[in-house]
């Protein structure tokens, strides 16, 4: 009699539950109903994606300089490539494009350095990005000093203008928003009522109205001699508007901090600003990240509203290019390009915020 | 909206009156700045749009360039301010621009109540119809019961229903928000007819997959005279813009073009000698250099050249001259004599 005192080796699981097949069975074909759903979805994907890919890539034309180059019946990306300079720089003089390029490059390097985990002296880089970089950007873009040619703001346009509007809006609205939120929670009646009125007024009107007021009504009230730059008017409008929204997001975060934290800070004898700066805001800002980034993304997309006051942001300049008799009829390509550009920036912001949330997660609070 | 308009008009009137005190305030400021501030559209095929290099081009743009050529002797000295339809009059009233050349229809209300003056007509437009060729329709009067694609919120809608009521026909409106959607609707067969201003119909036709499959019907059912606008109360500037336009039209009548005007300078034809500023009133009365009309035609071109280049056979739009031909060629264009 043979007795096996050795443990038999484990048999591999049935082939139908592992690997690709197993994954398919558990996730896509587990019940007849799911099977049906899977098949329907596959069919819908086939019907929509195949022609879209055919149109956008396989049949597309990429190179050339006029619509004659578009012969294969698919997307005519020639329209985009031929006008890419205009979409990136607006009407900025061609000889001065390097100034915009320098800034694009600096922005990429700075943001890259801030995102990368192991960068040394991050605090200094952040301070440089927020304080020195805008000053450099201002002098480089506007010019008129250091031997640079002055470029008027009505020549700005395209992606560059979109980024200027978004960056200024984002960078300026956060500090204003924090101050407004603190003010609204303050016990000083004047500060409190001022902040409340400010927030409610700006939040109560649509951005489009603000822009219209800034561009249409304001010039009628000030005398004709005062040249009030249209871009500046739009920037102020957007910043004030966004600060009000930001303030409410931040107030939400402040209210989520348990009362014990405030009392503990008071018990330590910290002054108001130390309490806020060292105890409350660091915790509050962390839990507010999704809300803040949400506001930033909304702001980034809202910048395209400036097209109604005749500023050529990325969307508006593509629309203007579509009005060129030489390129009539390529609106789909134009809008796809704009949508893609906006998506890249918004998706980037969203990913970065998720990364920040994970990094700053200290294990406190509910899970 | 009406309230805003009247507030705007009232404040504009106040500004206009103060501006009228010095007769040539606009001319002085243009000369001291060294450029003409010109309000144009943010993008209208053939009338004003930026080209590949970012230079503005089009019929409306060429009016700006003509004024700059006449006043400053250099057609490139124009600062273009792109304006949307809603802000165009405010921009002029508030002094942000010197001339508004933005596809603006001359109407009684605009001319009389906004503190503005229309300096002439550079394009006689009107609402028309585009149909698919295989519909077999040759006249708008055969359109009884048709489905009509329209862009919403424009006077186009009102003109259309007036026209069909007048001719006791019925129609089904199919309304879209933007011109791109209108074209797609027409192409997809949502309607039999597409209606819009004629100048726009030709642009819309290019957007079709097969532009040859559609045709524009001959009927024009509304009057849309488009022209440059200036502030009321600065008569000298008004005259300068008016005569810059007249010089382009007269130039075509005399047969001068940007190519031949230098050789025409030696012509014995008194009309041409007056035109180039060798005789006659020259720049007097307009406070312009004597060769102002010469500069316009030399740098911008005569009306015929401008038309062909921007919207006519020389452009993708291929609009026929139609009523925009000279008065002696069956059109409406008639400039008073320059003498």
Q: Please, could you describe this protein's structure?
A:
The complex is a heterodimer of chains A (367) and B (339). Chain A has a domain at 78-92 and 151-360: Orthogonal Bundle (MetI-like fold), CATH 1.10.3720.10. By secondary structure, chain A is mainly alpha-helical. Chain A has 13 helices and no strands. By secondary structure, chain B is an alpha/beta fold. Chain B has 2 domains: 2-124 and 225-327, 3-Layer(aba) Sandwich (D-Maltodextrin-Binding Protein, domain 2), CATH 3.40.190; 127-222, Periplasmic binding protein-like II (D-Maltodextrin-Binding Protein, domain 2). Chain B is 39% helix and 17% strand. Chain B has 13 helices and 14 strands. Chain B has helices spanning 2-20, 25-33, 59-72, 88-93, 108-113, 155-166, 179-187, 198-207, 235-254, 261-264, 270-275, 292-299, 303-310; strands spanning 36-41, 49-50, 56-57, 78-83, 99-100, 116-118, 123-125, 127-132, 146-151, 171-176, 193-197, 214-216, 224-226, 229-231. In chain B, strands 10-9-11-8-12 form a 5-stranded mixed beta sheet. A 3-stranded parallel beta sheet of chain B has the order 4-1-5. Chain B has a two-stranded antiparallel ribbon with strand order 2-3. In chain B, helix 3 packs antiparallel against helix 12 and helix 9 (235-254) crosses helix 12 (292-299). The radius of gyration of chain B is 21 Å and the shape is globular. In chain B, 50% of the residues are buried. The chains are: A mainly alpha (367), B alpha/beta (339). The interface between A and B is large, with 35 and 40 residues.
């Amino acid at each position: 009699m043979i007795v096996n005192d050795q443990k038999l080796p484990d048999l591999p699981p049935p082939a139908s539950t592992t690997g690709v097949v197993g994954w398919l069975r558990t996730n896509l074909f587990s019940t007849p109903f799911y099977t049906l759903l899977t098949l329907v979805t596959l069919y819908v994907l086939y019907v929509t994606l195949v022609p879209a890919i055919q149109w956008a890539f396989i049949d597309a034309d990429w190179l050339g300089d006029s619509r004659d180059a578009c012969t294969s019946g698919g997307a005519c990306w020639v329209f985009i490539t031929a006008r890419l300079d205009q979409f990136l720089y607006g009407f900025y003089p061609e000889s001065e494009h390097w100034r915009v390029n320098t800034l694009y490059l600096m922005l990429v390097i700075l943001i890259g350095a801030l995102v990368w985990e192991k960068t040394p002296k991050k605090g200094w880089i952040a301070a440089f990005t927020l304080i020195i970089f805008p000053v450099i950007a201002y002098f480089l873009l506007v010019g008129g000093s250091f031997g640079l040619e002055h470029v008027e703001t009505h020549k700005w346009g395209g992606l560059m203008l979109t980024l200027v509007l978004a960056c200024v809006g984002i960078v300026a609205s956060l500090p204003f928003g924090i101050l407004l939120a603190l003010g609204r929670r303050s016990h000083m009646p004047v500060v409190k009522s001022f902040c409340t009125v400010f927030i409610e007024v700006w939040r109560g009107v649509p951005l489009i109205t603000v822009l219209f007021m800034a561009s249409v009504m304001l010039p009628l009230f000030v005398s004709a001699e005062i040249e009030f730059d249209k871009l500046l008017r739009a920037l102020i409008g957007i910043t004030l508007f966004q600060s009000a929204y930001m303030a409410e997001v931040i107030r939400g975060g402040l209210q989520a901090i348990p009362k014990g934290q405030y009392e503990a800070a008071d018990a330590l004898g910290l002054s108001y600003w130390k309490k806020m700066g060292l105890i409350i805001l660091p915790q509050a800002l962390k839990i507010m990240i999704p809300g803040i980034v949400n506001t930033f993304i909304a702001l980034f997309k809202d910048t395209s509203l400036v097209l109604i006051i005749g500023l050529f942001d990325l969307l508006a300049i593509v629309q203007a290019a579509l009005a060129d008799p030489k390129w009539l009829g390529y609106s789909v390509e134009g809008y796809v390009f704009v949508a893609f550009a906006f998506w890249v920036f918004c998706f980037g912001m969203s990913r970065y915020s998720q990364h920040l949330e994970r990094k700053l997660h200290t294990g406190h609070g509910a899970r | 909206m009406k309230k805003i308009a009247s507030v705007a008009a009232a404040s504009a009137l106040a500004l206009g009156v103060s501006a009228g005190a010095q007769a040539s305030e606009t001319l002085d400021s243009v000369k001291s700045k060294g450029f003409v501030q010109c309000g144009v559209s943010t993008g209208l095929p053939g009338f004003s749009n930026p080209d590949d290099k970012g230079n503005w081009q089009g019929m409306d743009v060429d009016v700006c360039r003509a004024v700059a050529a006449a006043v400053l002797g250099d057609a490139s000295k124009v600062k273009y301010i792109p304006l949307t339809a809603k802000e165009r009059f405010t921009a002029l009233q508030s002094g942000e621009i010197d001339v508004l050349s933005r596809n603006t229809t001359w109407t009684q209300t605009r001319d009389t109540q906004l503190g503005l003056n229309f300096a002439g007509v550079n394009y006689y437009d009107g609402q028309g119809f585009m149909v698919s060729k295989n519909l077999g329709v040759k006249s708008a009067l055969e359109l009884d019961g048709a489905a009509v694609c329209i862009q919403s919120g424009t006077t186009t809608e009102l003109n259309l229903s007036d026209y069909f009521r007048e001719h006791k026909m019925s129609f089904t409106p199919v309304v879209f928000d933007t011109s791109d959607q209108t074209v797609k609707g027409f192409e997809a067969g949502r309607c039999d007819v597409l209606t819009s201003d004629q100048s726009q119909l030709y642009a819309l036709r290019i957007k079709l997959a097969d532009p040859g499959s559609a045709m524009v019907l001959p009927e024009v059912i509304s009057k849309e005279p488009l022209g440059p606008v200036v502030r009321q109360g600065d008569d000298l500037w008004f005259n300068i813009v008016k005569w810059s336009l007249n010089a382009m039209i007269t130039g075509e009548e005399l047969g001068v073009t940007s190519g031949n005007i230098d050789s025409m300078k030696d012509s014995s034809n008194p009309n041409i000698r007056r035109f180039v500023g060798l005789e006659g009133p020259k720049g007097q009365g307009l406070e312009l250099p004597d060769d102002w009309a010469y500069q316009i035609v030399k740098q911008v071109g005569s009306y015929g050249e401008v038309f062909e280049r921007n919207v006519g056979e020389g452009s993708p739009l291929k609009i026929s001259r139609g009523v925009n031909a000279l008065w002696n060629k069956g059109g409406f264009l008639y400039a008073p004599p320059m003498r």
